[in-house]
Design brief:
Belongs to the proline oxidase family. The protein has 459 residues and is α/β, with parallel strands linked by helices. The chain has 22 helices and nine strands. An eight-stranded parallel barrel has the order 2-3-4-5-6-7-8-9, surrounded by eight helices. The two termini are 34 Å apart. It binds flavin-adenine dinucleotide.
Length: 459
């Protein structure tokens, strides 16, 4: 409670770096690390040691909470916005280290099968494995080409005549396929080269240069290895949702790997942010696509973590704000999406979808449980589950777990120094996400238990 109280004091949050530095100078490195592990770090994260991670997950499992593991990458010092070429080797090493560390996390999570039957989840970020500028570029190329496909019906025909193996897919399916877009980009630009005269329609499409294509292949190879490892170790792999200027590419990468690895079970999971105006339509589109193309839908449903940045960027660029205008509109989106997905889980039958409602909001949890009861969904199968962050809103997770509902805690792990830097960023970006001592103190366990228990009896 002391930690939550401190996190809610603006002065401490604004001056956290100075305060942490001062505390380290006073106590010395070793004592400081211990102090942090007993307080801030220990509250929200677990030390990057296999034994400690498994001990933490086992303790949660004893309270009915399933494993969800997230490796936390250290900060990339001075390289992200640095002077380009000279930093490239350092960046590449960082992506490679992250890739190897996430790969290792599968082997740790697979050991959870010694104490749990629920399929553990690994959560990670695509920006751990490639420069975010590539994802920005891919996102804008996809948007440009999809706009072109709306008006130019011959483009797909011309593409298929040159690439007959794509013949079996619908136009909607192609529009949502990142590999198709990369190949289409090559065709558009080679035609321009051959004809020496770009048509008016395609002259604006940005060209993916060889360097971009090489980076893309590297990313594709890394993600493929992670998805394959998830399948081989019988785990689920969830990719976080990030800022909208990256999301078009991230979503389509996930769809690409779902097509490859979700044929029999939902191994790869996308993430959908309900604070975005477009999310309801995107989810409906992806579920339709999954049914048409014969793969299992998997998605983590969140409200969204980058609201201030999204709003600031829309204002600066004078573009339409992608975020819902009010909190109530975000909550209605959460309700629309949960109703739609729970109906789909019912229609598609057991084992074909995996949906995780990741929220700290008690009303959303009870609303979802209500819908599950109405549709008589068998909660023991695990097609639908809940998730909260480690150290946050424990009363919700523990209550759900004690009543036998499927629930996970997302456990971030790292070394204490990198972990503190990560927590400090999260606290600055999203204060309400971590710090709400009123809610944590309220602990309405009895009331929550009563509400949920009523529903458990009826499911
Ligand atoms: C297990 C887990 C995994 C997560 N993974 C991701 C992820 O991959 N990507 C990601 O972006 N986030 C992720 N989050 C964070 C999540 O998106 C939310 O920021 C956080 O959980 C708070 O939302 P809530 O539903 O828990 O609670 P609430 O407190 O009910 O909702 C707060 C949220 O409502 C929205 N909101 C607030 N004010 C307004 C407003 N004026 N207008 C419109 N909307 C508003 C914002 O999204 C804000 O974060 C994750 C959270 C959890 C628990």
């Amino acid at each position: 409670m002391l930690v939550f109280g401190l996190c809610s004091i603006d002065y401490l949050v604004d001056n956290q770096t100075k305060i942490l530095k001062l505390t380290r100078n006073i106590f010395g490195k070793k004592l400081f690390a211990l102090l942090m592990e007993w307080t801030f770090f220990g509250q929200f994260m677990v030390r990057e040691e296999e034994g400690k991670i498994l001990e933490g997950l086992r303790k949660l499992n004893e309270r009915g909470i399933s494993p969800m593991l997230a490796y936390t990458a250290p900060e990339l010092h001075g390289s992200v916005d640095g002077d380009g070429a000279s930093n490239e080797p350092a960046k590449e090493q960082w992506y490679l280290n992250n890739f190897n560390s996430v790969l290792k996390s599968f082997h740790i999570a697979a050991k959870c099968y010694s104490f749990t039957k629920t399929r553990p989840i690994i959560t990670t970020k695509v920006t751990f494995f490639v420069d975010h500028s590539l994802l920005v570029l891919l996102s804008s190329v996809i948007q440009q080409q999809n706009a072109l496909l709306l008006h130019n019906n011959q483009l797909v025909d011309s593409f298929i005549s040159k690439n007959p193996t794509w013949n079996t897919r619908s136009k909607e399916s192609l529009k949502n396929d990142l590999i198709f877009h990369v190949e289409l980009n090559k065709m558009i630009h080679s035609e321009r080269y051959e004809n020496h005269s770009p048509t008016k329609e395609n002259e604006d499409v940005v060209k993916l240069q060889d360097a971009h294509l090489n980076l893309f292949e590297k990313l594709r190879g890394r993600m493929d290895k992670l998805c394959l490892t998830a399948q081989q170790t019988n785990l689920s792999l969830n990719f976080d949702a990030e800022q909208t200027y990256l999301q078009t590419a991230i979503e389509m990468l996930c769809i690409h790997f779902q097509r490859l690895y979700n044929e029999c079970a939902p191994v790869v999971l996308n993430t959908y942010q309900c604070y975005l105006k477009r999310t309801g339509d995107v989810i409906e589109n992806h579920v339709t696509l999954a049914k048409q193309d014969g793969f299992c839908f998997g998605g983590k449903i969140v409200r969204g973590a980058y609201i201030d940045e999204e709003r600031r960027l829309a204002k600066e660029k004078q573009t339409v704000d992608p975020v819902n205008p009010t909190y109530a509109a975000t909550t209605s989106m959460y309700q629309r999406v949960s109703e739609f997905l729970i109906n789909q889980v019912k229609c598609q039958g057991e084992g074909r979808m995996r949906v995780i409602f990741a929220t700290h909001n008690e009303d959303s949890v009870t609303d979802v449980l209500n819908r599950l009861r109405e549709k008589e969904i068998n909660m023991d199968v695990g097609d639908v589950s809940f998730a909260q962050l480690y150290g946050t809103r424990d009363f919700i997770s523990y209550t759900l777990g004690s009543l036998g509902y499927p629930v996970s805690k997302m456990v971030h792990y790292s070394n204490p120094v990198d972990g503190l830097a990560y927590l400090s960023r999260r606290l600055t970006e999203n204060r309400s996400g971590l710090a709400s001592p009123e809610i944590e103190r309220r602990l309405p366990v009895v009331e929550l238990k009563r509400r949920l228990f009523e529903r458990r009896k009826n499911i």
